[in-house]
Specification:
CATH class of the largest domain: Mainly Alpha
Helix content: 40-55%
Strand order of the largest sheet: 1-4-5-8
Shape: globular
Order of helices and strands: HHHHHHEEEEEEEEHEEHHHH
Distance between the termini: 25 Å
Low-confidence stretches: none
Number of strands: 10
Number of domains: 3
Structural class: alpha+beta
CATH topology of the largest domain: Butyryl-CoA Dehydrogenase, subunit A, domain 3
Strand content: 15-25%
Length: 379
């Protein structure tokens, strides 16, 4: 496994960097937040991303995509994260595209994938039901009734859940809470009768929702994958999402670190640059080392996903753990080194800390993945 980008992947990364710097600087994110934008992402910007082909990175050419792989979409998210660019790219271009491409029927692929590629359809994965990530704790019920299922229950912290057109829902068709068997995935029209979406106000000013399902009827044809194989399927989908999110979190950490370095080179105390203080140099060196280690972990996981490695589960948990711990460290240190002004709204550095605290919890915290990695390794 070579931990380097191909020429095509580097081109995608460079394109994303130029796009983020020119079309979506942090001032763009700040404006969306300050204007209380209902979507908390820009439709025009999403349209531009669509023209660049980003929602179709994981989608085969037969359905209009480019099939550039997990590394391709992850390096794009990494660069967009450096300017805190909000968009449906993660929830739709990663989770939605991968789920339907790999587990959808031919009819589902033909119907949904071209719409994702064209930017006509956004998706959201509704999986968790409490403040802690654990797919096995699914309690929402899907009860068989004729040729349909009736859904009752709730989902929490659904990424892009306030605006998505299609909900990928994990529900229990048999078994009890804590059991990974008896789970089934469904494709649910977000505008179906009985769905109530409540937008969440989160620290990172992104699009999240709690969703209640009351007697929502879903036909058999909208099952994603096979009946009661959702436990295995969702873990495969989540592993891809965890790798992409780890890459995004790495981008957050890199940007926060660079911003802090610039500040150390400009800010003076007692008539000298604070970057000359050895204690701060040591702390900056520690951040640099942790970021470099995280880069290797994330790159290894991306390549494992594209190569179909049987180490994918372990490497995805390693990447998410490393990204979570590194971003936590860097975001903390960045604010500390800026001093009191670091927690004011005037400076952008506080945005990275707020994003860090939310992103750390997406699809499992570092603690969750440390335990998962140990279990997968036989400890």
């Amino acid at each position: 496994m070579k931990l380097v980008l191909t020429e095509e992947e580097q081109f995608l990364k460079d394109t994303a960097k130029n796009f983020a710097d020119e079309r979506s600087p942090i001032t763009h994110f700040r404006a969306l937040r300050d204007n209380n934008d209902p979507l908390l992402w820009d439709k025009d910007l999403w349209s531009e991303m669509t023209k660049l082909g980003w929602p179709g990175i994981l989608i085969p050419e037969d359905y209009g995509g480019s099939n550039f792989g997990v590394t391709g979409i992850s390096v794009i998210l990494n660069e967009c994260a450096k300017t805190l660019t909000p968009s449906p790219l993660f929830a739709t271009g990663v989770i939605g595209a991968y789920s339907i491409t790999n587990y959808g029927t031919e009819k589902q692929k033909e119907f949904y994938l071209p719409k994702i590629v064209n930017g006509e359809l956004t998706t959201a994965l509704a999986i968790d039901e409490s403040s802690h990530h654990n797919p096995a704790d699914t309690e929402i019920i899907a009860k068989k009734q004729g040729s349909s299922f009736i859904i009752n229950g709730k989902k929490t912290f659904v990424i892009d859940g306030a605006s998505a057109d299609l909900i990928i829902l994990l529900a229990r068709t048999s078994g009890i809470k804590g059991d990974m068997t008896g789970l089934t995935l469904f494709l649910v029209d977000a505008n179906s009768n009985g769905i109530d979406r409540r937008k969440l106000d989160m620290a990172d000013s992104r699009n999240y929702a709690n969703i209640n399902f009351k007697n929502v009827e879903i036909p058999d044809s909208d099952i994603l994958g096979d009946l009661e194989t959702g436990g295995e399927t969702i873990e495969n989908i989540l592993d891809i999402g965890r790798i992409a999110m780890a890459s995004e979190m790495l981008g957050n950490a890199e940007a926060a670190f660079e911003t802090t370095l610039d500040y150390l080179k400009q800010r003076k105390q007692f008539g000298v640059l604070i970057g000359s203080f050895q204690a701060l140099q040591h702390r900056a060196a520690e951040m640099f080392c942790e970021i470099e280690l995280t880069k290797s972990s994330v790159m290894g996981a991306m390549k494992a996903a594209d190569e179909g490695s049987n180490e994918l589960q372990r490497l995805s948990s390693l990447a998410k753990t490393m990204a979570g711990e590194t971003l936590h460290l860097v975001s903390n240190e960045a604010v500390q080194m800026h001093g009191g002004i670091g927690v004011t709204d005037e400076y952008d550095i506080g945005f990275f800390l707020k994003r860090a605290r939310v992103a750390e919890q997406i699809f499992g915290s570092s603690k969750y993945h440390t335990e998962r990695y140990a279990n997968l390794s036989g400890f």
